[in-house]
Design goal:
The chain has 411 residues and is an alpha/beta fold. Helices cover 38% and strands 15% of the residues. It has helices spanning 15-20, 26-36, 80-87, 102-113, 135-144, 176-181, 188-192, 226-237, 248-275, 279-290, 298-302, 329-338, 347-350, 358-373, 391-400; strands at residues 7-12, 42-48, 55-60, 96-100, 122-127, 153-159, 162-167, 170-175, 203-206, 219-223, 241-245. The strands form two sheets. The protein has an eight-stranded mixed sheet with strand order 3-2-4-5-9-10-1-11. Strand 4, helix 4 and strand 5 form a beta-alpha-beta unit. The protein starts with 6 loop residues before the first strand and ends in an 11-residue tail after the last helix. The protein binds flavin-adenine dinucleotide and iron/sulfur cluster (4 copies).
């Protein structure tokens, strides 16, 4: 019987899945097992659409359709958690197994704290994540840095610090450091991300630490919950997943890579936040950046923390309607509501019609709040800072100083 903290090499015994899978197909094998045994009603994963730059979220209810979801799409910059809330009713009436990167898992936790998704109905199969590349950047990078027509590329991978492509005519790899120095590579939020092994999930799966004859053919699985342990044990018993204990050397190697990735995340945070300035300078920079805003609402639509039926940014006494760019209050409202809980998923920046570095702005504020209050969003079910504000106490305090309004909006 496996238990939380156990570590294995794992692979599927299903040939069709193994052929399409990234590293032995343990993830898709487990998904298929759960669907066949009716542990879940559906699997929520990602499949290739038109090409490798087109990652399509997909809900699968027939186990025979699962093989098409195997494989890693590094140019897939989706956030799966918001989609569960938006389109799957927060898993309230359906049991779902889903593949989650660190940001997906963090988003699910933040939504669960707010009763917007039901984690009891979700099995999270985590995938380690070194980062993803925006499809637009990937195409430009492949054309300009690799000298290859992006439409001829049929496979990409990120391995040993390199972005590697296979295309009609060969394969080529360039170090991520070199690509990032040239302004390409991973998304800016991914460079700052420190959720490399999503241990909030039920299992955390990845290639780091897989060595010897299993390299490229098996996935390193860390058991992160009792739920995860039971699913893995049952799948092994049924003969659909094979495992062997991860060797000490592999465990050490994985730990080392994770450590270096965390250091790299710190390096990028220091660089990006320094470029944003401090205090008044930072405020001025944010006001300048957001002066390009066309109020398209993409940032709000995409953010996992934004789900309010009546968004304050639409209230005319906060943000006067009919103005483009909107008053800075539009952005201040988002900072006030989200900064304590931002999971740095990058969606508000990725999808911004005006390329405003929204995610950088919000992440920088979140890290400041984390320093002040010690609250880390997305890692567990501890409540966001704003939930801990005692309204009664705050009102009494304001009353004592002669006002019951934080600011008088009706003046
Ligand atoms: P498969 O059976 O091939 O299943 C892969 C699963 O991932 C499928 O469910 C698929 O739908 C889903 N998926 C594919 N693309 C995405 C996406 N963009 N977002 C969400 N789900 C997706 N492991 C490491 O150890 N180090 C890394 O740096 C690393 N980076 C990764 C970056 C990304 C963007 C992804 C998706 C995965 C990354 N992994 C990393 C995990 C690794 O690539 C494999 O997914 C893992 O080892 C499982 O292999 P498998 O053969 O069992 O998976
Ligand atoms: Fe991966 Fe982190 Fe980027 Fe999400 S934010 S895609 S977990 S590196
Ligand atoms: Fe993600 Fe942006 Fe929302 Fe932060 S503010 S959680 S980066 S969408
Ligand atoms: Fe809700 Fe504030 Fe986001 Fe609007 S900006 S959806 S009010 S959290
Ligand atoms: Fe403004 Fe960009 Fe948000 Fe659209 S996505 S409302 S342009 S900040």
């Amino acid at each position: 019987m496996s238990k939380k903290g156990d570590m294995f090499y794992a692979w599927t015994t299903d040939a069709a899945i193994a052929e399409k899978a990234e590293l032995g197909g343990a993830v898709t094998g487990l998904m298929k097992f759960m669907l066949e045994k009716k542990v879940v009603d559906a699997v929520f994963a990602v499949k290739k659409g038109q090409d490798i730059y087109d990652a399509v979220p997909t809900l699968v209810t027939d186990p025979k359709d699962l093989a098409q979801t195997a494989g890693s799409l590094h140019c897939g910059t989706l956030l799966m958690s918001k989609l569960v809330k938006k389109y799957l009713d927060g898993a309230s009436g359906m049991r779902i197994a889903m593949t989650v990167k660190g940001c997906d898992a963090m988003g699910l936790y933040e939504l669960a704290k707010r009763q917007q998704v039901n984690l009891d109905n979700i099995v999270m199969i985590g995938v380690n994540c070194g980062g993803s590349v925006s499809p637009v950047t990937a195409r430009k990078m492949i054309r300009e840095k690799f000298g290859v027509d992006p439409d001829t590329v049929h496979k990409e991978e990120i391995d040993k610090g390199q972005f590697i492509i296979e295309y009609e005519g060969g394969h080529k790899g360039i170090s991520m450091d070199e690509l990032e120095e040239a302004g390409f590579g991973r998304r800016p939020n991914c460079r700052r991300c420190k959720m490399k092994v999503p241990r909030q999930a039920d299992l955390a799966c990845g290639n780091w630490g897989v060595m010897g004859d299993k390299a490229g053919k098996a996935t390193f699985v860390e058991v992160c919950s009792e739920k995860g342990a039971k699913i893995l044990d049952d799948a092994i018993k049924a003969g659909v997943i094979k495992t062997e204990a991860a060797p000490e050397k592999g465990i050490e190697m994985r730990k080392k890579v994770e450590g270096s990735m965390l250091k790299l995340g710190d390096k990028w945070r220091a660089k990006d936040f320094a470029a944003l300035g401090e205090g008044r300078e930072r405020l001025k920079k944010i006001i300048k950046d957001t002066s390009r805003c066309i109020k398209c609402y993409s940032c709000i639509e995409a953010c996992p923390i934004c789900y309010c039926v009546e968004c304050s940014t639409k209230k005319p006494y906060f943000v006067p309607p009919g103005q483009v760019p909107p008053s800075f209050m539009f952005h201040l409202i988002r900072f006030a509501h989200i900064a304590d809980s931002c999971v740095n998923c990058g969606q508000c920046q990725e999808l911004c019609a005006m390329d405003i570095p929204n995610s950088l702005h919000m992440h920088a504020q979140q890290v400041e709040l984390e320093k002040m209050f010690g609250h880390v969003p997305g890692v567990d079910m501890s409540l966001p800072l704003l939930a801990l504000v005692e309204e009664r106490e705050e009102r009494d305090r304001l009353h004592a100083i002669g006002s019951d309004q934080i600011f008088d909006i009706f003046k």
